[in-house]
Amino acid sequence: MIKKIGLLSFAPFFAIFATACGDQEVDVENYPEEPVTFYVNYSSGGNTDVVYRQFADVAEEYLGEEIIIENVDGGGGTVGVSELANEEPDGYTMGNLSMAPLTVSPHNQQVPYSTDDFSYVGGWGLQMYGLVAPADAPYDDLDDFVEYARENPGMSFSDPAPGGLNGLAVDLLDREENGELQIESVPYDGGGESTSAVLGGHVDFTSNNPSAVVSGLDSGDLKLIASMSDVRFEDEPDVPTAEEQGYDVNVTSWFGIGGPEGLPEEIIETWEEVIQQTLDDPEFQESAESLDTPLEWMPGDEYEELIDENYELYGEIISDEN
Prior knowledge:
alpha/beta; D-Maltodextrin-Binding Protein, domain 2; 14 strands
């Protein structure tokens, strides 16, 4: 039992085509004409923040305007998503639409939005998860970890996105053990803080993304017990996935980009082109590899369908757990 504690474009024959967005009109032919604010719904220094800052540094070269990263964190990523849903669909406020706040959090907490409140540009990269412990922890694989957890009830882990996929990975491991692991989930504000909690000895382990723990793994202060996703960590190729270790646990998410519902199609097409150019850029490919972020492209309609499918899937899992 896991215990939760605390908390593009077309041009018509005339020169300028304007699209109404609320009380504003957007010149979609000349978009963008000013910097674009981009909501990252997790704290500075965590996995999502680090990846998107690298992304923005390259993408703005193709967009032709500055991309200003604004951390709108809290609520396991739900605050930023909620704020994005309430913005004007004019293309000047875009944001991260990753899986957890849309597919998991609504089943764990009340949120003021639904998956229909957004315009999806597409998914562009995979988010992986791993169970990471101090280097001197008395377990090196999941079998040893499970045995230790059974013998030492009350273990705790730092959760960088409470109510999201990080905690779900641990929940699924506990489910494999018939709900008999007595582990406490301790909420933290993002990957950086949750990793520091492990390094500082405040918790026993973390369920986290590669970029949040890579420094500790490289320094030898941390060790990876298992990738909880369907592929191994690039920087830890000798550490098997949970499935390879005999546990039916596979949690993989996506980085996704979108805006409020009603985003003009021309702006969506502009961002589609910018994202694909960024994914093909050698500089960003190198950055993504260093952050253990596999790059893939999924168009917006397919990504929205995946969001809806996972919303149903995770809802069933969480309902069973409760």
